[in-house]
Amino acid sequence: MAKRAKIKDLLLNPKFGAETNVKGWVRTKRGNKNIAFIAINDGSTIHNIQAVADLEKVDETLIKLVTTGACISVTGEIVESQGKGQSVDLLVSELVVLGEASAEEYPLQPKKHSLEFLREIAHLRPRTNTFGAIFRVRHAMIFAVHKFFNEKGFYNLHTPIITGSDAEGAGEMFRVTTLDSENPPKTEEGKVDFSRDFFGHETNLTVSGQLEGELAALALSDIYTFGPTFRAENSNTSRHLAEFWMIEPEMAFYDLNDNMDLAEEFLKYLAKYAMEHCMEDLDFLNTRLLDEEKNLKQEERSELSLIERLQFVVDNDFEQVSYTEAIDILKNSKPNKRKRFKYLINEWGIDLQSEHERFLVEKHFKKPVVLYNYPKNIKAFYMRQNDDGKTVRAMDILFPGIGEIVGGSQREERYNVLKTRIDEMDIPEESMWWYLETRKFGTAPHSGFGLGFERWMIFVTGMKNIRDVIPFPRTPGSAEF
Ligand code: ATP
Ligand code: MN
What we know:
single chain, alpha+beta, CATH 2.40.50.140, BirA Bifunctional Protein, domain 2, eight-stranded mixed β-sheet, five-stranded mixed beta barrel, 14 helices, 16 strands, 23% strand, binds manganese (II) ion
């Protein structure tokens, strides 16, 4: 029996005249009484291979079972294609139906389905061209993340998923407990007694690996984490998931400028890698986006196509702007003066909303923006304070269509300053003693940032909803599959 080949390899390097075996899922079947043309896809590439079955040689009852969605195994000779647009055909000598898919019941018929509908059948959507392309690009990006850091001498660090500290301050957390929810043990004051829980105290799913990442950076110099993070924020937006993946490098001896430069270099590397390794899938996603935006008004359409956008990121320096400068720009902007912003900008110190971030990126600078030196009162306790007493060495990178894609900072390495800030913000010190000790023993200037992997995937695929760039999205009210 001929060996199985992946369709990607067959199309790339066809051995005409050779016998081969292909296994995959039927996309379409057409033909007539004498001949059937079957398009097969095995997920190795966006392209299908066409199997050509002479109905005098292949059993008719078998051909009837070859319907969209069925899984088949075909063996035959590789020949040059007669049809237009294809290069290679497989002349069927043997056909086995591995798994039928009833034409009445199979939901993925060869027609256009909405992304909303496909979310409801997330168990089958990887079989569409769109999701096949997205998940292949996702894989390439995961690989590129590790490649980038490995080439720079960073070590990948696994930080805990269950955490006992609730001090990261990144929003609501999911509790992890084995206590009986019907009848939990109570303290004398009538509160749930977490000292009798599995870990002897309250635990949650992590919102970030940063604090533990810092511990390792103060020993290994350069580390990065790439793990799942969880946020129970009930924000039903197209940019938030309850479970998402985050990449968090942490570097000893980096100041804020080094940190910003590394983040920019990293994003450019990912964009370049995608263009060098995923062009077929990107071409498909590019066309998909143009098609999706055809129905939008001119001013709502993206100015650049997907591929142009990636090229733009590679070719252009990001704009570095301080928070104070950004507030001035926003205060004097048209949408602010005409009260078009939902949240008007009138004073220094307020947190920026997504509408402001997108104005800066899409309308004002027309390129990715790195905002730095934020007011300390809107940022986390661990960010290094500037000498002005008002700002901290924070930086956010803002991208078109998304807003914040990276959040980072130089960390406060001075024991006394950090301790004072922890007290000011009423953070329970007993949960942070280990973090503080790193500032007591051999502290060093250090910095890091977090890239939300799915936010990056939105950018690189041109999808508009974060639910469509992760295989099985978790969002408020939804954790099926
Ligand atoms: P936002 O203001 O957009 O909610 P954040 O300030 O909460 O973001 P950070 O706590 O700085 O974000 O997290 C670091 C990065 O993780 C963000 O820059 C973003 O890329 C990503 N991120 C944050 N929250 C989510 C989420 N709920 N779903 C997906 N990605 C997220
Ligand atoms: Mn958030």
